[in-house]
């Protein structure tokens, strides 16, 4: 029976597809075997501190692996509803597998200090089924998860794997709302899906990825033109309440401020100048948010910092024991002075230097160097893109949230905050902002030179003080 032209043209594609699937079947076990050998015979003896690990039993790995299957298909269903394009479903599968492998690998070689704190708090303290208190959401979630599945920290990591795999597709929608460009939205999806910081932090049981996910959702509702007003405001309110429950009022304020900026400034298609719009909406939003959040924002930040530094002995001890060189130049007894705020903000943008891995050769240092190298590469692109698209209200809203978060995180170092880890929260928004750069002439390229000069200057200071 003769073979039609259509069948002849289709058969090579089917053969290639079968070969790819067969290669994938062999690739995954082989990669796991190689990684196991590296971890057992090379990585663990040289890079791992066994005293900082949480014991992981085979049953814990099996339970987490079984639970990851329904999570994968649930996410697959959501991505299919967002967009039924086959390449997006394939991208989702890739993102999920990368994060799943990273979660299992890190379980045997590395745990963050706060991961261990969440783990032992969930074991030793009972937060109940539901506790509506700001900042207590993740403790409550860990407590409930352990009650259902047992004391298995990998189950907490599975939820972050799920959220981290979904994050690129909501970031893609946000980029499309801001730029109106298909190429920029695909780049945002790839950046948030494949950049090392978002893979690593999606594979650990910390609050950074849930916080980033909520921020992306908030901005997606804020900038969406497809939804009606009620749906948009309902989505913004729900995500704002979730953020308040997870992080407290300090992280809600940037979202509130971005909403005011979005409804106050923006541009119509085809016009280059600013157009003030929505006077009534902006005024009402600002008044409402002022009544709800503004009185609590500055006092809460000042209270957190000043209470931590009020005791002279505590202030001196923290300044003496901290590895942060910034304590040599700031006044620890007046942490919120203008001089301190300026120094801390500039230090927060560059710290820690990727070179810091050379002084601490372990998994924490290596991952920190990789993550900060990614930050150093993307942040100037995001700045350039912000200047190019500053007339877009969506870009203004993104920039307000990133700048506000960086300020809060940088000032928080005086209260013992981890600047490096918290800086991964706006990383997804940095990826979205940077995704529009490739479509531009990049008239603000001078900003890149200034950025890298600052990076070299900061690294030089760090190396000099560490050497002498």
Main attributes?
disordered N terminus; 20 helices; mainly alpha; about 475 residues
Describe this structure in words.
The model is unreliable at 1-17, 268-280, 291-297 and 308-321 (pLDDT under 50). This protein has one domain (51-467). The radius of gyration is 24 Å and the shape is globular. The chain has 20 helices and no strands. It has helices at residues 5-47, 58-82, 86-106, 113-124, 137-149, 153-179, 182-194, 196-202, 208-223, 229-247, 249-264, 279-292, 294-310, 312-321, 338-350, 363-388, 393-411, 419-422, 427-434, 446-467. With 468 residues, it is an all-alpha fold.
Order of helices and strands: HHHHHHHHHHHHHHHHHHHH
Could you estimate the helical fraction of the residues in percent? over 70%
Number of strands: 0
Number of helices: 20
Structural class: mainly alpha
What oligomeric state do the depicted chains represent?
single chain
Rg from Cα? 24 Å
Tally of separate domains? 1
Principal-axes shape call: globular
């Amino acid at each position: 029976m003769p073979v039609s032209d259509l069948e002849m043209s289709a058969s090579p594609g089917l053969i290639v597809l079968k070969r790819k699937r067969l290669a994938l079947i062999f690739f995954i076990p082989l990669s796991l075997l190689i990684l196991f050998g590296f971890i057992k015979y090379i990585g663990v003896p040289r890079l791992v501190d066994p005293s900082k690990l949480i014991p992981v039993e085979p049953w814990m790995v099996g339970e987490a692996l079984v639970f990851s299957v329904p999570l994968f298909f649930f996410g697959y269903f959501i991505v299919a509803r967002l967009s039924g394009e086959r390449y997006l479903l394939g991208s989702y599968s890739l993102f999920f597998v990368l994060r799943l492998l990273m979660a299992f690998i890190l379980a045997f070689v590395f745990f963050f200090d706060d991961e261990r704190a969440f783990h032992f708090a969930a074991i030793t303290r009972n937060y109940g089924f539901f506790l509506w208190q700001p900042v207590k959401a993740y403790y409550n979630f860990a407590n409930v998860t352990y009650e259902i599945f047992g004391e298995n920290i990998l189950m907490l990591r599975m939820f972050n794997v799920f959220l981290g795999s979904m994050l690129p597709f909501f970031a893609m929608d946000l980029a499309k709302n801001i730029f109106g460009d298909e190429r920029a939205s695909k780049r945002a999806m790839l950046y948030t899906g494949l950049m090392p910081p978002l893979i690593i932090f999606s594979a650990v049981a910390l609050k950074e990825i849930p916080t980033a996910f909520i921020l992306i959702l908030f901005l997606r509702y804020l900038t969406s033109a497809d939804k009606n007003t009620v749906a948009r405001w309902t989505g913004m309110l729900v995500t704002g309440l979730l953020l308040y429950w997870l992080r407290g009022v300090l992280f809600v304020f940037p979202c509130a401020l971005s909403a005011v900026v979005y409804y106050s400034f923006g541009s119509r298609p085809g016009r280059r100048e600013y157009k003030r719009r929505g006077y009534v909406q902006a005024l009402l939003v600002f008044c409402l948010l002022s009544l709800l959040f503004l009185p609590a924002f500055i006092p809460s930040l000042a209270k957190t910092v000043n209470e931590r530094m009020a005791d002279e002995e505590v202030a001196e001890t923290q300044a003496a024991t901290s590895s942060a060189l910034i304590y040599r130049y700031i006044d620890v007894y007046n942490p919120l002075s203008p001089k301190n705020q300026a120094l801390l903000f500039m230090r927060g943008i560059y710290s820690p230097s990727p070179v810091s891995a050379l002084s601490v050769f372990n998994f924490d240092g290596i991952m920190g160097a990789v993550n900060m190298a990614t930050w150093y590469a993307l942040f100037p692109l995001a700045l350039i893109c912000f200047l190019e698209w500053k007339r877009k209200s969506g870009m203004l809203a993104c920039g307000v949230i990133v700048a506000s978060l960086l300020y809060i995180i940088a000032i928080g170092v005086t209260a013992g905050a981890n600047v490096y880890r918290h800086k991964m929260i706006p990383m997804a928004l940095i990826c979205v902002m940077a995704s529009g750069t490739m479509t531009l002439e990049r008239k603000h390229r001078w900003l890149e030179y200034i950025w890298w000069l600052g990076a070299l200057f900061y690294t030089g200071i760090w190396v000099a003080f560490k050497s002498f």
